Records
---
Amino acid sequence: MVRNDTMSFSEKTSSDRAFGLVFAVIFGCVGLIPVLRGAPPRVLLLVIAGILLTVALAVPALLHPFNRLWLAFGDLLHHVMNPIIMGVVFFVVITPISLLMRLFGKDTLRLRTDAKATSYWIIRTPPGPEPESCKNQF
C-alpha cells in the first residue's frame, strides 16, 4: 500500500517581496526596451515598476494576493500545457522512433516470443554481485 503524503507536504512558495522585486525588474526592463531603438521609454511600465519596487521593499504583504493569483495562473498553465507538450513529444519523437524500429525489425526489449527457447533467462557475463552483498538493501 502506498502512503499519500501530499496532505502533510507544506509547499514552499516564493516570498511576496521576491515576487514584487522580480516583477519590478521585468516591468522596468520592458519599459526601457524602446530606449535601445532610440524611442522614448514606456513611462507607464516604469511607473508600475517603481510602484512594485516601493511596495515590495516597504510593505510586501500587499503583494500577497497578486502572488497567489500568479501561482494559481502558473498551476492552471501547467495543467493545460503539460499534457499538450507531453503529447507532442510522444507523437513527434517516440512514435517515429518506434515505427522506424519496427520497420527495421529491431526488438531491443526482446519482447518477441521464441518457440525454440526453453527459457528467457539472460545469463550475465560477467556475473552480477555476490548474493551475500545484497542483504539488508533497504
---
Amino acid sequence: MKIKYFLGLSVIALLISCILSWMHRTELIEKRNNRVENNRSIVEILGTINKEDQVKLLATYGLLLEQEQRRDQSKANTDQLNINIKALDGEISGIKIAKAPLDKKLATAENVVTELRKKLGPGVTLQNIAPTIKKLENDLENAKQDLATRQTELEVVSKKVAANETRIQKAEKVQVDRLVKIERNSTEGIITAVNKDWGFVLVNIGKDQGVEGDSELIVKRDGIRIGNLNVVSIQPGLTVADISRKGLSRAVEPGDKVVFQKLGE
C-alpha cells in the first residue's frame, strides 16, 4: 500500500514537472519570436534611411551637440555669478550684524546727551559738566564716524551685488537669444513662386517662423548654396524677397529651399 502511495506521488510530481517545462519552453519560444520580429522591424527602419540622409543626420547631431555645449557653458557662467552674489550677500549680512551694536550705542549716547541738557538748570553751567558732556559728544562723534564707515562699506557691497545682478541678467538674455537663434536656424522654407521679370520670390515662411526685416536668407538646392534673398515684405506665414544678384550662381526656381544664414556662412 505504501509503495502505491509513493508511486502515485512520483507520477503527480512528474506530471507537474512536465507541465512546467512545457510552459517554460512556450514562454522562451514567444520571447524569441518577439525578439526576431523586433530585429526585423529595426532592420526595415534602418533600410529606409539612405546614405545621404545619414550624412545629414550626423551633421544635424553635430550641430545640436555644439549648441548644447554652448548652452551648458552659459549655464555654468550664470551659476558662478549666482555664487558670487551669495558671497556678497554674506558680506552684507556681516556688516549689518556689526553695525547693529553701533546703532544701539549711538542711540544711547544721544539719549544721555538729551537728558543732561534737559537737567541743566540756572545754577548749573556748561563748565561744571563740560568734561562729561565733552566725552559723551566725542563718543557720539566716534560712533557717527564708525557708522558712516560701515554705511560706506555697505554701499560698496550693494553696488557689487547690483553689478553682478546686471551681469546675470545679461548672461541670461544672451542664453535666451542664443536658444532662439538655434531654433530659428533650424527652420527651412520653400520658394513657392518666382517672378523672373521683377526678380522677386515668395517663400512659405514668415513672421511666425522668426523672419524679420533684417534676416539674411539663403537659397539652397540639393544642399548647395546658390544665392541670397533680401526681405521686402513679411506676413505671418509668407515672405516676399528680392533675389540678390551678388553671388548668384544659378537661377532660382520654385521648390528651392530657403534657410536662415548662420554665423560664419
---
Amino acid sequence: MKHSIVSVLIFALLGLVIGYLFFGKIAGEYVSISTLLKPASNELVSLGQKISGIAKVRNNIAICGGIGAVVGIVIRLVKK
C-alpha cells in the first residue's frame, strides 16, 4: 500500500513538472511557480489572470499532474 502511494505521488509530481515544461510559457517566458500557486486575491486579479492565460496554464499543468497520477496507478497495478 505504501509503495502504491509513493508511486502515485512520484508520477503525479513528474506529470506536474512535464506539464510546467510544456504549458508554463506565456509569450516565450516561463510563468513563475509562485504565480501559479497563488490564488487570485480579488476579482480584478482573477480577471487579469484569465486574460493573460495564467488560469489556462494552471489548468493544463493540473491535468498533466492528474494524468501522471493515473499512470502511476496503472503501472502499480500492472506490476502486481
